[in-house]
Amino acid sequence: MIADVVSMKQEISSIVRRLAEDARAAYGVLAEAKNEQKDMALVQSALAIREHASAIFHANEKDILEGKAAGLTEAQLDRLKLDDKRIEALAQSLETVATMPDPVNKILAEWTRPNGLIIQRVSVPLGVIGIIYESRPNVTADSAGLCIKSGNSCILRGGSESFHSSAAIVECIHRGLKAAGLPEHAVQVVPSKDRALVGEMLAAVGLIDVVIPRGGKSLTERVRNESKVPTLLHLDGNCHTYIHEGADAAMAVSVLMNAKMRRVGVCGATESLLIDEKIAKDMLPKIAFELTKAHCEMRGCDKARAIDPRIKAAMDDDWSAEYLAPIISIKIVSGIDEAISHINRYGSHHTDAIITADKKAARQFLRQVDSAIVLHNASTQFADGGEFGFGAEIGIATGRLHARGPVGAEQLTTYKYVIHGDGQTRA
């Protein structure tokens, strides 16, 4: 028995090492590739996705059937499902990334020292990136496309729920890389559902340069707690919409409904609604009516429940919950100071919005709310790299180091210093 366990661990370690060594070799080529060659790989990958859409669709159907058998929720199945529109979106995303400026080998800053040395800060790829995510097949295409554009090689470990879909998409990416004369190993998918492979990736110091998780709280917490490799974290999205006393009522209802109900399973969905007590008696029943009509469960504070009996009692855990479901917490606040304090205490520093015509209040909110993305008079569901003009995203980074907010191609670079001299020596 012990021998079997040791053998299995050695096999898993061997798989990760082989993937990483192949990725390192491919990175050496991709990092030096011209932008035109990288863009050709992206465009040809998009073409392959369209040409092989039926194969991707059938692979996704297999994932859906297995997901239903495994008891996935409707929200999870929605994130997993691909249809003609979503498959086309995969292709369009790659084409959009191809139109973006090359983020590599840009001179970010340049200056000349008194001794004549010319110092340049130049953008370079991160290296070999391990990307660990859950049941969204679009992350496979987005991650591959952004890594190709930024000159990084990547090892993709999608959730077991999207195993077949991800493999079919990566086959199309390989066709694009091959057509552009770039190594297929620049993009690799972990060929197993074994969860032990995740742990091996997190321990792969010297083999993998950066690990990026994209998924639920349990995944990101595991990566944060276990990883020995540097990480770029995407934490949970407990996003807030605050309706200030200066809000236009029609705008507030429209924006809130979009922020909550457009797609309840995305990380930018509003999970908590804050309403100023000065307008709550008039505003809350209108919102409660629309949320009830949309079959959204409401859990609120005592003040909210006193205004509208359709609202259930909120527990302490509700204020920090990421539901990813048609459920919303509602709290009546005394004003903007309490709203900001509540968000900074219970939020996940992801995305938060204020609805108001009061520019002074908006400035205070945007300045004092400690989140990666803050919005004024707009839906939190704009928390998306595509909506930022990045073409795609790997996730929303909620930490403070290296990158914050949507992680696109530019955020997958670091820099080095290049110094030009003409014989200088140091005294």
How would you explain this protein's 3D organization?
By secondary structure, the protein is of the alpha/beta class. It has two domains: 2-234 and 396-419, 3-Layer(aba) Sandwich (Aldehyde Dehydrogenase, Chain A, domain 1), CATH 3.40.605.10; 239-382, 3-Layer(aba) Sandwich (Aldehyde Dehydrogenase, Chain A, domain 2), CATH 3.40.309.10. It contains 14 helices and 16 strands. A hairpin with a 5-residue loop joins strand 1 and strand 2. The protein is globular. Mean pLDDT is 93; it is low at 1-6.
Task: Provide a short characterization of the protein structure.
By secondary structure, the protein is of the alpha/beta class.
- The CA-CA distance between the termini, in Å, is 65 Å
CATH architecture of the largest domain: 3-Layer(aba) Sandwich
Classify the secondary structure makeup into a structural class. Answer: alpha/beta
CATH topology of the largest domain: Aldehyde Dehydrogenase, Chain A, domain 1
Q: What is the number of domains?
A: 2
Number of E strands: 16
Amount of beta strand: 15-25%
Radius of gyration from CA coordinates: 24 Å
Low-confidence stretches: 1-6
Widest beta sheet: strand line-up: 10-9-11-8-7-12-13
The main sheet comes to: 7 strands, parallel
